């Protein structure tokens, strides 16, 4: 049964955030809000967490997982970025974008795209997510909470708790955060390729 945490969307309670962070460090799989929609998240190196996300979402090994980072310094530990890409990403963060980039050796192999050796990274503009990342001190391994055969992500914390109670360890609810996922930009080929148009404005990458 998943624990349910009701968190203030702008001033998240520090004790609650600390409890959620501790549970992630202990191997928990949580549903949490972002600036685009709810996401599934676990500790970076959690093989069990990865397998549970794959199971819930029915994902194959070509799916790009995302490392949700607190800031640019943290993001830079996990992906290779040249100067032009650095400037482009820096100008768009924090925000509702996921960037696909070549991964560094800091990224566990099971997270990498099997052929491209790439990984998704993002820096969200959401107070609750930022508070959780600050408390953890490392990225959260994440994937959009979009269930198989459904067109839109789940957006209500109570519904997530109700429908996924048996497969999650915790639900962090700070209110509706929308159904539009991030805009995905692939920089792994050198230039900017728009893979998915979502909540982030694509005009700067066209």
From TrEMBL:
PROSITE patterns: YRDC. Pfam families: Sua5_yciO_yrdC. This is L-threonylcarbamoyladenylate synthase. Its EC number is 2.7.7.87. Keywords: Nucleotidyltransferase, Transferase. InterPro entries: DHBP_synth_RibB-like_a/b_dom, Sua5-like_dom, SUA5_domain. SUPFAM superfamilies: YrdC/RibB. GO terms for molecular function: L-threonylcarbamoyladenylate synthase. Gene3D superfamilies: DHBP synthase. Signal peptide: none annotated. Residues 14-200 form the YrdC-like domain.
């Amino acid at each position: 049964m998943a624990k349910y945490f009701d968190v203030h969307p702008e001033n998240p309670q520090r004790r609650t955030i600390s409890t959620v962070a501790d549970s992630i460090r202990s191997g928990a799989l949580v549903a949490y809000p972002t600036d685009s929609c709810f996401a599934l998240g676990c500790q970076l190196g959690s093989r069990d967490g990865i397998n549970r996300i794959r199971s819930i979402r029915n994902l194959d090994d070509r799916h790009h997982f995302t490392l949700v980072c607190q800031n640019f310094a943290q993001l830079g530990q996990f992906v290779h970025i040249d100067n032009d890409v650095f400037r482009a990403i820096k100008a768009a963060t924090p925000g509702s974008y996921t960037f696909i980039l070549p991964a560094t050796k800091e990224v566990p192999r099971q997270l990498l795209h099997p052929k491209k050796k790439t990984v998704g990274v993002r820096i969200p503009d959401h107070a609750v997510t930022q508070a959780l990342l600050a408390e953890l001190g490392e990225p959260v391994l994440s994937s959009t909470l979009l269930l198989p055969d459904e067109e839109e992500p789940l957006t209500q914390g109570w519904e997530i708790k109700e429908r996924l109670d048996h497969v999650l360890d915790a639900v962090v609810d700070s209110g509706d955060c929308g159904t539009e996922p991030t805009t995905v930009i692939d920089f792994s080929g050198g230039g900017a390729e728009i893979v998915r148009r979502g909540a982030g404005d694509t005009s700067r990458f066209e």
